Amino acid sequence: MPEQSFDVIVIGAGPGGYVCAIRAAQLGFKVACVEKRATLGGTCLNVGCIPSKALLQSSERFAAARHDLAEHGIGVGQVTLDLARMQARKAKVVEANVKGVEFLFKKNKVTWLKGAGRIAAPGSVAVTGADGAETLYAAKHIVIATGSESVNLPGVAVDEKRILTSTGGLELDAVPGHLVVIGGGYIGLELGSVWLRLGAKVTVIEFLDRLVPTMDAEVAKQFERILARQGMKFRLGTKVTRAEAGKDGVALTLEPAKGGAAETISADCVLVAVGRRPFLDGLGLKEAGVALDARGRVQVDAHYATNVPGIHAIGDCIAGPMLAHKAEEEGVALAELLAGQAGHVNYGAIPGVVYTWPEVASVGRTEEELKAEGIAYKAGKFPFTANGRARANGMTDGFVKLLADAVTDKLLGAHIIGPDAGTLIAELALALEFGAAAEDVARTSHAHPSLNEAVKEAALAVGGRALHI
Known about the structure:
By secondary structure, this protein is an alpha/beta fold. The chain folds into three domains: 4-150 and 277-345, FAD/NAD(P)-binding domain, CATH 3.50.50; 163-274, FAD/NAD(P)-binding domain (3-Layer(bba) Sandwich); 351-462, FAD/NAD-linked reductase, C-terminal dimerisation domain (Enolase-like, domain 1), CATH 3.30.390. The chain has helices at residues 15-26, 42-47, 49-67, 83-107, 166-169, 186-197, 217-229, 285-288, 324-338, 367-373, 388-393, 421-433, 438-442, 453-462, and strands at 4-11, 31-35, 111-114, 116-121, 124-128, 134-144, 148-150, 163-164, 178-182, 201-206, 233-236, 238-245, 250-256, 263-267, 269-272, 276-278, 311-313, 352-354, 359-364, 377-383, 399-405, 411-418. Strands 1, 2, 3, 4, 5, 6 and 17 form a seven-stranded mixed sheet that branches. α7 links the parallel β10 and β11. The longest helix is centred in the first third of the chain and has 25 residues, at 83-107. It starts with a strand and ends in a 7-residue tail after the last helix.
């Protein structure tokens, strides 16, 4: 018989899982969360979002000290890199965040079941501890929140020394002479930016003929130009068919994506960033009868319920963008649904951000999507070169672009490439959530001088009445 019973057991303590567990506890459920790592927070806090942003911030400051401060009248002498200290700072940031989640578990009386979780049967979770002992726990509701892992590329064997996933890409103890990034998406471009700023030559190899295929095409083209100006090299429309790691580096075999002659290039390190897939190994889903969709994700209904009563799933292991904040919203919605409340996630208002510099952020539909759907729209753009605060900051790359319904003026999409785009997009996500019109944004007073004024001006531009261009 199970040794202990809970109302809710969440398997996985990443952003979706730990937020779901905390919200369920707030709603009065007796909650446990299963996590096999030595720390809470999942991929995001331990080896993903948080450590990558720490290195992005450090590398941005290093680059600013080398190239930008003199223009401000600040002399710093010879700038040197202490990578060990930079990595140590990153580790402290991670430690603070994961300990913060542990504190929140204690505060909300969420029980941490340490070990690897498996669904033994509907209503029963088996947890295997570090000592190999297995313990059964009963649960009225089981939540699968196990996140995702890096996708492997045929012919490219990851060893986390020369051929790396994002995990290894965060742990390098020396700046590589030449880093090749396979994949022109969020993760590859962010980590490529880190090592580019710290002194590496960086080449990005992308199978498609453009970067970040889900991004608005106009923004993506500008993004490529800006990164190229920073020194990043691109091989678009190219595939990697083989990578051989040797003592002194990696030899990569490339071919045109549409067919053609092969060539070989060399690199000190290779970062494989071609996507992620749901992590569902060892969960016992097949034995429990849990259905998967055609892409190997857990299949759920609008209330995050699987086909097996009492088993639910959220986050990266179900359909939708693999974003920590998407998983968190689903975790909250599910907990509230289990409590009989009206939990809901508006998937049309979930922002996406690439934390390079400048940042790129978007929410809602792209122009390409609106055209494909046959929706008549108006576009308004405003460049940061015409924004007073951006000029004062010396950060004028990029623009704000808003898309609104041609008839109703309802905001349909927002796309920003520029300074602090990831922060600026929040206003527009809120506007989408409330069904605002472009005119609503345009008539909202924005502080001067601020970067946010570019958002207001883009909204004015939708109606052909921008003031500062």
